[in-house]
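Incident review: delayed structure delivery

Summary: a single-chain prediction request sat in the queue longer than the usual turnaround. Root cause was a stuck worker, restarted by the on-call engineer. No data loss occurred. The affected request and its eventual output are reproduced below so the record is complete for anyone auditing the incident later.

Affected input:
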Amino acid sequence: MRTTRLLLASTLVTALMATAVDAAAAAAKPAATPAGAAAKAPAGPAPVEGTDYFRIDSPDPVRGGKVRVVEVFGYGCPICNRFQPMLKAWGGKLPADVEFAYEPAAFGADPEHCWDDFARGFYAAKALGVQAKAHDAIYDEVFVQHRLEPAGCANVPTLWSDFGVDAKTMSARMQAFDIGAKIDAAHDEVVRWGVDGTPTLVVDGTWRVPLTRDGGPTALLRTVDWLIVKQRPLHKGH
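Output delivered after worker restart:
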């Protein structure tokens, strides 16, 4: 039942967000931003808890000197595909005391989005040392090259072939015990965070920031910047 709700929520987000993400991406202009630009809260009114962002019921412990931001995503999610260029540009401007990471949404088996297949592929590629350099390219393989057709999710292991990993090696690595353990852990973490659609950003394991129809991707990233400033004093050295 939970998996069904997650898939329905993701489908709803996909239907509602595509126009907003495309419009924001078209309007975005590259700019030189100092490394410490996110040290101050963004101008304008503060985001509203319960509308723009949500407190996680069982938050992660705050550790170390860096604020951690995680994108929960899926390579089969068209909104994540559209959002990725904006997210990448934003991530390239983060100050040194912010750590950014990707976490695949292990929502279960699904022939349209291939949630678990892509999550396994992500962790297998990471174990094989090719995930970081392949990340953007996998979206291109899915949404531009249409490499999943006609076999669908069964073709997921082939997508990393341009990075020196053949399908047989990738398929075997995806089914390894340690990858299965990572999938289970990722599923449990996403459920604990309350994530029910992609893309969603999680700040310090404490705040969940979903993509909303009204705010769109620009508002999402502004809210995350604001939460980074909010969390910074809780870390060592601040």
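Verification: The CA atoms of residues 37 and 121 lie 34 Å apart.
Action items: add queue-age alerting; document worker restart procedure.
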